[in-house]
Design goal:
The chain has a single domain, classed as monomeric porin ompg (Porin, Beta Barrel). Helices cover 4% and strands 53% of the residues. It contains 1 helix and 17 strands. The strands form 2 sheets. A 14-stranded antiparallel β-barrel has the order 1-2-3-4-5-6-7-10-12-13-14-15-16-17. A two-stranded antiparallel sheet has the order 8-9. Mean pLDDT is 84; it is low at 1-22.
Length: 306
């Protein structure tokens, strides 16, 4: 059996074992889809915000992840309440996940500078399936050989989000319950593990035309090593974002986003692995389309960057 099948089989079967690992979908342009990580972000932009993203990971690697995201959220009741919906469709080899979550947040104004603190909840479901019938294996006695496992599981999540026009900090867990099912041989299968996310970022004004925006995303899974993403971006003339990206022990990359009149954002991200996978694939690509229809009752008198 070729090395690609061996590696894929190890990855896929590891999700069924009792071990715990990073499992949620990756994003290098995570700054543009915060609702995926934190339901408290819903309604924080003083606009009806629609975000569509697609990620093509590990190009030319057989069975590589392919993911599509759609998020929609808006403030209601003068930004004291926010609502949103986020959808995810993900496939990694024989594993498929489709998820839909409704998000609601409640925020309070902390001071005259419009610093705000929001608490959010999400409710939804995951439709997950695994199909090992078409995989090539060396050991036909493997308990998952020829197995097909599928399940629909409800879940809830929560988060806190503190923000103003140039700074944000968030703590969240989008799916608090860990779902498991039994296969035909009564072997327990873990469908998902609990993840925790810590996000933060700030914009610094360097001069009249350039702003600097460093951000980070920490990903925590019990019984797994801590991992994080770092993103450093420069904003030119309030129109063009350009920056560099680093994922701990995994990848480096570049990303670019063009902002047309604070209404349409079009972006692209590329990352290349810095681990042993670099010999077997040619990088990952992300594309972004974001539309923000601003509210006439914008609580922020100056531009918002989050």
């Amino acid at each position: 059996m070729r090395y690609k099948y061996i590696f894929c089989l190890i990855v896929f079967c590891s999700t069924f074992s009792t071990s715990y690992g990073q499992q949620d979908e990756q994003l290098s342009l995570y700054n543009y889809n915060p609702l995926y990580y934190n339901p408290a972000y819903a309604g924080s932009k003083s606009a009806l915000s629609i975000v569509s993203m697609a990620r093509f990971q590990w190009v030319n690697f057989e069975g590589a992840p392919s993911t599509q995201f759609l998020s929609v959220h808006t403030p209601v009741m003068g930004q004291s309440l926010g609502m949103g919906l986020n959808l995810v469709n993900d496939q990694v080899g024989s594993r498929k996940r489709t998820a839909a979550y409704y998000n609601v947040s409640s925020g309070i104004r902390l001071n005259e500078k419009n610093d705000r603190l929001a608490f959010g909840l999400s409710f939804g479901m995951d439709v997950m399936s695994y199909d090992f019938t078409d995989l090539s294996v060396q050991d036909p006695t493997d308990p998952f050989y020829g197995e097909q496992v599928s399940a629909t599981k409800g879940n809830v999540g929560g988060g806190l989000y503190y923000y103003n026009e140039s700074f944000y900090f968030g703590v969240s867990s989008p799916r608090l319950f860990e779902s498991k099912v039994l296969n035909t041989d009564n072997v327990q299968t873990a469908l998902n593990q609990r993840h925790f996310f810590i996000t933060g970022g700030k914009v610094f004004t360097l001069n009249s035309v350039v702003k600097f925006k460093p951000t980070t995303l920490l990903k925590i899974t019990p019984n797994s090593p801590l991992t994080f993403d770092l993103n450093t971006n420069f904003l030119l003339y309030e129109r063009f974002w350009a920056g560099a990206f680093y994922r701990f022990h995994e990848a480096v990359g570049l990303n670019f986003v063009y902002n047309y009149k604070n209404l349409i954002h079009v972006g692209y991200g590329f990352e290349f692995p810095v681990n042993r996978l670099s010999s077997y694939q040619s990088g990952s690509h992300e594309i972004l389309l974001q539309i923000d229809i601003a509210s006439k009752k914008n609580l922020f008198t100056s531009p918002r960057y989050f």
